[in-house]
Amino acid sequence: MPFSAGVLLGVALFGLLPELAEEAGAAFSILLAAAGYGLLLAINRYAYPVCPTCAHDHDHGACASALHGFALPLIAAAAMHSFLDGWMIAASQLAAPLGLRLAVPIAIGLHKLPEGMALGGILRASVKSRAAAVAWCALAEGTTLVGGGCGLWMAPRLGSTWTVVPLGLAAGWLVFLGWHAVHEEWRQRGARPAFLSAAAGAVGAAALQRGAELWLR
User: Fold this and answer.
1) Distance CA 163, CA 165 (A)
2) What range defines the domain where residue 192 resides?
């Protein structure tokens, strides 16, 4: 989990934000990222945790107990989260340089592995059968494709400049998800393993972006 969180942070800090700063200016890029971070923070705090693996108020060690009434809001939050993931991937493919076009989907894919396991585990404790848990999990994660499709559908109608805003917001979303996942690991296992793994993931993301640009240029 902290490694995949570090990959998200690396993509945002060493990929998205520097490219956006060149395109739209540093101040506007930071403002967009702050808006994206604040949006997920507000949803996480006042609506529902958008990331089941990094929710501070959920005891993941108690997932084996019945979580009555937990499934519906969790599915809705996970579906929205996945929709935004797909939107991010579509935006990166349309406007970002080669390194980011490769790094963003890989980073999101890595993050979805522990996210999907956590979502499936919590849903299994929230619904009556394993088949229902798998089906709801697939539906929630499948909205990634819907988000990507919507992003690609909107691009010809709005022009290429539309991608600046979602990419800026995406940088804030990635920072939010990455930081909260690292913080959750920090709480459970201590600072050293959490930050070492996260740093390895961030360095790997930066190397992936730059390596792809040099190799495929």
Assistant:
1) 6
2) 2-216
